[in-house]
Amino acid sequence: MPTRRGFLGRIWLALGGVALVEYAWLSFEFLRPPRESTAVLPIVNAGPLEAFDAGSVTAFPDGKYYLVRLEDGGFLALSRTCTHLGCTVPWVEEEGRFLCPCHASAFDLRGVVSNPPAPRPLDTHPVRIENGIVKVDLGRTVRRESFDRDQVTYA
Amino acid sequence: MLDHLVLHLRPVRVPTRTLPFTHTFGLGGMSAVLILLLILSGVLLMFVYEPSPERAYGSILRLRDEVRFGGFVRGIHHWSANLLVIVVFLHLLRTFFTGAFHGARQFNWVIGVLLLLGVVASNFTGYLLPWDQLSYWAITIVTGMLGYVPLLGEWLQRTARAGTEIGASTLILFYTLHTTVLPVLLVAFMAFHFWRVRKVRGVVVPYAFGETPEEKPATTLFVPDLLVREFAVSLILTAAVLVTALLFTAGLGAPANPGMSPNPAKAPWYFLGVQELLLHFHPLFAVVLVPLAGIVALLAIPYLKYESAIAGPWFLTARGLYTARTAALVALVATVLWVLLDEFVLDFGRWLPWLPGQVSEGLIPVMIGIALLAGLLEWLKRSTGATKNELVQAAFTAVTTAFMVLTVTGIWFRGQGMALTWPWSI
After folding, report:
1. Is A104 touching B (CB cutoff 8 A)?
2. Which of B144, B173, B279 sits opposite A86 (nearest CB)?
3. Would you say A100 and A87 are in contact if contact means Cβ atoms under 8 Å apart?
4. Mean pLDDT, rounded, for A6-29
5. B193 Cβ contact list (under 8 Å, min separation 6)
């Protein structure tokens, strides 16, 4: 037979549950990584147009990217993070490709996968050319499933 | 008087047949001793270690070079941690093979699995703290794997890393989990785990194959018979850890360099089985479905409908021993063969290019594996008339053996570019 005591007891239990949920929600919000301010990742000047030969790859360790100038003169800014598990991919000049030391994924000049296990091409950062200076927008990272001419920036 | 203190925690009498070391190998007790060593050494380390990317590596150097017994204490912590993963795994095997998961022991198995996950999580969070090349890239790899979880992947990865990249936020997240949250949870669950063992009056009582288990097995006094044995095992284990720490240092690589990934870059050794899976299956299966299925299967073991609650003897019956041994052998040979085949011959992705990767390199090979396991079990059932208890045991043995082969491959047979290499050439 339901009693007043039992009823009140259940209310206490429910309130305890609410308190627990509140604590869990507060903790979760507290621990969430703060929004990464874009001021930390600005648009950088890579250098003047003439500084980059066609078919060259220039590493920018500070920005964690490579500036690639294709044979036809177009620019691509490639992220140095391997799309497999996140290792840093070096450009191997002698082999003419990016070769990841972790699991042997390989990418060609355009960042397209030439050897698995990487599942997709290297991410890119948008490139702008203003007044003969090549600029890279590190605040934006573009994922792509394949190479497209639209991804290349021409002077 | 000490007797009375001890008897607050332990029973007055224990079944005589559970005394021999070879019944449980004292693995549960060893786990508790190792956790105690980890807490004692860990607390000391906390007085010196600094959880920030700029100061972490230097604080480990100070431990080694300036703090008296610094290297020794770190060594105790390092070797206890690695030994603990092995010991709890062996404890799981013992519990399983003696059938100690039926009836009132069902839920304690679940608590045990949670403890196992807690131990692995503790080991993993601790791995990052030295902030050397090994730490940084191992955590990059494992959190990178999280990115392959469908829908939630990116969120999981960012939450685990406390950001998009591994940095200061990641380090302090791991540090707090490692030194506070996980130890508290582990100790709480350990207490629960021990209490559940007391509730069922101790460990399962063994008997010879074919013998009828006694209703009321003969008992002996805990003090001194079992107490002395437990004390001896604890002391020998502690001595072994201390000597190992004296002879072998914990090791420290070059300071973490986000600009340079080492070749090869490997996850901590207890995750290399999963990393090996990644080399053979599509990430959806290797990282998400197969490990998840493994954990679900592990948790389900006590709750499958068995014909009997047989427990006590290792491998349950003579037939159980035979089927388990056969399953282990078959799994050993099959897994080694398959690793070699997959490395040099098989390429489902290329043979079936019209199918998406998840199917050609995921679903199809996994289905083949499941079919082979089902075939093995069916053959064992027909040729021996094995019971469900024995068949589940055989399946467990096969899967565990396969996973151990993959782990061994990942540790000792993967070299530059994760290519298959002889161990001496790595």
Report:
1. yes
2. B144
3. yes
4. 93
5. B108, B111, B112, B115
| ipTM for this prediction | 0.81
Low-confidence ranges of chain B (pLDDT < 70): none
Q: Does B418 touch chain A (CB under 8 A)?
A: yes
- How many whole angstroms separate alpha carbon B344 and alpha carbon B110? 40
Q: Name the residue in chain A with its Cα closest to that of B356.
A: A119
Q: What's this model's pTM, rounded to 2 decimal places?
A: 0.91
Give me the torsion for CA of B241, B246, B251, B252, rounded to 10°: 120
Interchain contact A43–B (C-beta under 8 A): no
User: B300-353 pLDDT, tens per residue?
Assistant: 999 999 999 999 999 999 999 999 999 999 999 999 999 999 999 988 888 998
> How many CB atoms sit inside 10 A of residue B51's CB?
20
| Residue A87 to residue B162, Cβ atoms within 8 A | no
For residues A81 and A87, give the distance between their C-alpha atoms in angstroms, rounded to a whole number: 6
Chain B contact for A40 (CB, 8 A cutoff): no
Q: Which of residues 44-63 of A touch B (CB under 8 A)?
A: 61
Cross-chain Cβ contact B137/A102 below 8 Å:
yes
Q: Are A88 and B260 an interchain contact pair (Cβ–Cβ within 8 Å)? A: yes
- Please check whether residue B159 touches A, CB under 8 A: yes
Give the mutation candidate from B172, B173, B176, B263 for the A interface (greatest A CB count, under 10 A).
B263
